[in-house]
């Protein structure tokens, strides 16, 4: 009963958080100066080289919304669009729907950032357990200072240096893109190998910069956990050190790391913005960067809504699983 009550409270909190995020996502673009309809008209007039009739402006205002219309009516229309999973139409890629642009970039981001997040978490957490179990040993004395140095290096510098060294000087990897544009897109061996080739360098830079945080966090928590009474008791009973390390120390020490991992998975949809910019990788982060440059408000609004929703869902999943792993959370609730 206590677990159900705790889950009901969390669901209520996250429902309110989703409503707040949706409302802010609606208000912020409308409080900004400018009219997306006029931006469309200016772009069409620039391309066509002639003025457009007033009927065209009226039609575009019906599509993008008239900023002078009642705000409450606009809000209800916006909620109705979200209920239909309609994120609007891109200004700079008119008349392409925002959802099409998002679905084009989402698989690339999930492939690159999702896989590297899992790999960095597993590598960092595993090495952190070993370093924390034998704190002060040779492995810990080498890995911990080295990892601290690597974590302090700005990521964009690592990405630019890797691109310059392995892409420009050595020519081992492409300088930009997600696949060879001369190949037909599909589930065939040449295209898959091309995707892996183009994504190898961005993935390596992400793992190189990210695993250190997981390692240091897990190492510090393991150092604290190995001093707990239940760990000392398990060792005194004669259990093997490997079993005590994995079943007793690591299992309890990884709770904070697991929370961070769940939040990192929520941020996967947002993409590694700097990575996708440096390598011109066609993901959600690069789409957001281009929309900011082009002032494409519907695309920005759609991407922000998707990011907010995924982060909140990741938080909800982390809270739920954390409560299952640690009964003290439910008792305090």
TrEMBL record:
| Subcellular localization(s) per the UniProt record | Cell membrane; Membrane
Checking Pfam families in the record gives:
BPD_transp_1
Protein's membrane topology: Multi-pass membrane protein
The record places domain ABC transmembrane type-1 at 106-318
**Which InterPro entries does UniProt cross-reference here?**
MetI-like, MetI-like_sf
Which PANTHER family does the record cross-reference, listed alphabetically?
A: OLIGOPEPTIDE TRANSPORT SYSTEM PERMEASE PROTEIN
Instruction: State the protein's name.
Output: ABC transporter permease
Species: Nonomuraea deserti
Print the organism lineage. Answer: Bacteria, Bacillati, Actinomycetota, Actinomycetes, Streptosporangiales
